[in-house]
Every structure is written in C-alpha cells, then in structure tokens.
Amino acid sequence: MTAHLDIKSAQKFYKKYKAVDNVNLSIKKGEFVTILGPSGSGKTTLLKLIAGFEELNDGAIFLDGQDITKKKAYDRNIGMVFQNYALFPHMTVFDNIAYPLRLRNVMKANIKEHVIRALQTVRLEEFASRYPNQLSGGQQQRVALARAIVFNPPLLLLDEPLGALDKNLRHQMQYEIKHIQQSLGITTVNVTHDQEEALTMSDRICVMNKGRIEQIDTPERLYNFPKSKFVSAFIGEINLLQCELIHLEAGMAVVKLNDGQVAKVRVEQSDVAVQTAALIAIRPENIHVVRDGAVFTNMHELTVLEKTYVGESFRIEGTTKTRERLTIKLPYASSREIAVGDEIRIGWNAHEASLVPDEVTVQNDTADIRGAAKIS
C-alpha cells in the first residue's frame, strides 16, 4: 500500500544542534503511529515539522502523494489536538468545534450538521451550549478532538493528548481515542513519552533517540524483540545480561555468559558480530522458577535479595553467581513461599529473550531513560 504520510530524509537544525537527523518514516492510510521517546529525542520537533509549525532544513514531507514541505500550517488541512486542548474559553462547545469550519468558509447551513456529527462521535451531544470551564478534563479533551476531526482532515496529529489527565481517566481515554480513530479510519500520528500509552493505542511505534529513529515496529514486536540497548531499556522493564556471541545456527544465537555458561537466544537477524560483546534482553515476566523437573533452554541459580508484593504478582530482585542483578515477576499464588535469602533455580527459553549489541551508552542517555520512566 502506498504511504499516506511519507517523510523523507527529514532534517532540522537549531544552530549546530540536530533536533531531527535524517528521519525516514512512511505511514499507511488509516494507521495509528506513535512517536515515542524521552525529552530531547526529537519527537515533538518531528510533529511540528509535519504540522508545518517548523520548517525543514532538508528533506521532504508528502501527504496523500502531494508535497507539503513548503506549505504553511493553515494550508496543510491537518487536524491537531494539543496537550492543553487550546479551547477558546469565551466560546461554547458548539462554537469551539465550529471554528475550523468557519475559517474554511463552510456554508452556515452545513456547519450545524457537521458539528452535531462530531459531537455524536465524541459522545458530547448534551454539552453543546456549555463553556470549557464547565467541563471536566476528559470532556475538554473530547471537545478538542471533535474540533480536530470536524472538517474531515486527511491526517490527525496528537501532541501528548493525555498528559493533563489523571491516571484512571488517561487509561479510559486511550481506548476512547483509539475507538474513534478506528471508526473514522483517519491516519493518526501521536507523540508521547508514555510507554504504556504507546503500547495500548498504536498500530506501530516509532522510537526516537537523539533525533534519530531507533526502531519502528508493532507494539508486540517492539516489546519482545527490541533491536538496541536503548529501546530495550526504554520500553518497559528489562534485564540485560552481558555475553559474547559465539556463533549463529538456524535462527539461534549461541552465547557465552560471564560465568562461562553457554546460553541460546532466538534471533531473526543479528546486528551483533560473532565473537563480540552483546546483551541478552529478558523481560522479568519471561523468567520462571524451575519446579517439578521442568526444563528450560537456559537455567541459572539466583539468590533472592528483595521481594515486593505488587498485587497480582511478586517482584523479586536477585543476583546471579557472577553478581549480575535480575528482576523477575512471578504469579502471587505460586511464589508466596519464596523468601529473601533463598537460593532458587530460574529458567528462560530461547524465544523469550532477544540479543542486542552492547553499545556504549553515555550518561545523558541513562538519565533520559530514568527520567522518562519516572514521568510515566
């Protein structure tokens, strides 16, 4: 399928600083793509370039086959929802939603029909005569969404649309926005630093770091098969075990761990050269306690250092014989008897982990990842 939004070799500089560095991104019609990354990764700048609020230094942007690179923001006909909603406080809900139609000189007789349809889409028909300060945060957010879609734009941009909402309402609105987007079939680009939001709402996720795209993939593949140390650490919680790649065989990487033990990890294509340092990335929920003679592809001894109750499961921190820290998540019912100080045997299978290059990560990257995790 031909790309509906096509960004080619996009670059944006602020003096010598590269905010967006040679970004290529193609989005299909009706697709919901989230641009995810920590502060300073370039995600918001990329959204502004698409919207026309910033100008490219190099590259091009095509929308539905037309080059919009040089077009001003008001000529691109793109719908946008801002984090602070940007509603006009002196206008009613009806007039806020009607505003972009009046700007486009839509006939007065047709405006009411379009606004009512948009209100029905966001389930706010009864609130047409109210003012923004008479609405809850979630209702204001839906008004902003209705205003962005009322003129049937070819593209919808969402700039941290749920950032101002509390956690419970944020979860509810994730599903509402996704449902509306699917029902309209509108191509949507969402920007956020919230990993859970991205995983819940997106068809694909584009992870950015230092102005570049680290990985573009479906939520499931991004979570289970990260391609870099940055992506594995930024998306969810991860264990990283140091190893050396010995050789590749039939879709499997054979690696040697720090304790000399040989382990196997499934790989589709490896970005790691043989006989070089690598990292095994394993999610805490993919590490199991070995019981009743169960056999896993890879097994280790773990000393339990901490045990924390987190509702449906226990979060257990432990250390291997080579002093590497591991976090595992175990179902509540099957792990109540495990105590701090216990020596337990753990196992994981080759298909439950991925292999990433052990690239050098500077202090600033680590700070960005930790900061984003705290914000989320």
UniProtKB/TrEMBL annotation:
- PROSITE patterns in the record, alphabetically? ABC_TRANSPORTER_1, ABC_TRANSPORTER_2
Query: SUPFAM superfamilies, from UniProt?
Result: MOP-like (SSF50331), P-loop containing nucleoside triphosphate hydrolases (SSF52540)
Q: Which UniProt keywords apply?
A: ATP-binding, Cell membrane, Membrane, Nucleotide-binding, Translocase, Transport
Q: Which residues form the ABC transporter domain?
A: 5-235
State the reactions this protein catalyses: ATP + H2O + polyamine-[polyamine-binding protein]Side 1 = ADP + phosphate + polyamineSide 2 + [polyamine-binding protein]Side 1
Q: What Gene Ontology cellular component terms go with this record?
A: ATP-binding cassette (ABC) transporter complex
Q: Recorded GO terms, molecular function?
A: ABC-type polyamine transporter activity; ATP binding; ATP hydrolysis activity
Matches recorded under SMART domains: AAA
Q: What start-end ranges are recorded for coiled-coil regions in this protein?
A: none
Cite the EC number. Answer: 7.6.2.11
InterPro entries xrefs: AAA+_ATPase, ABC_SmlMolc_Importer, ABC_transporter-like_ATP-bd, ABC_transporter-like_CS, Mo/tungstate-bd_C_term_dom, P-loop_NTPase, PotA-like, Transp-assoc_OB_typ2
What family, per the record? Answer: Belongs to the ABC transporter superfamily. Spermidine/putrescine importer (TC 3.A.1.11.1) family.
Q: Tell me, in a sentence or two, what this protein's role is.
A: Part of the ABC transporter complex PotABCD involved in spermidine/putrescine import. Responsible for energy coupling to the transport system.
Give the record's subunit note. Answer: The complex is composed of two ATP-binding proteins (PotA), two transmembrane proteins (PotB and PotC) and a solute-binding protein (PotD).
Q: What is this protein called?
A: Spermidine/putrescine import ATP-binding protein PotA
Q: What is the lineage of its organism?
A: Bacteria, Bacillati, Bacillota, Bacilli, Bacillales
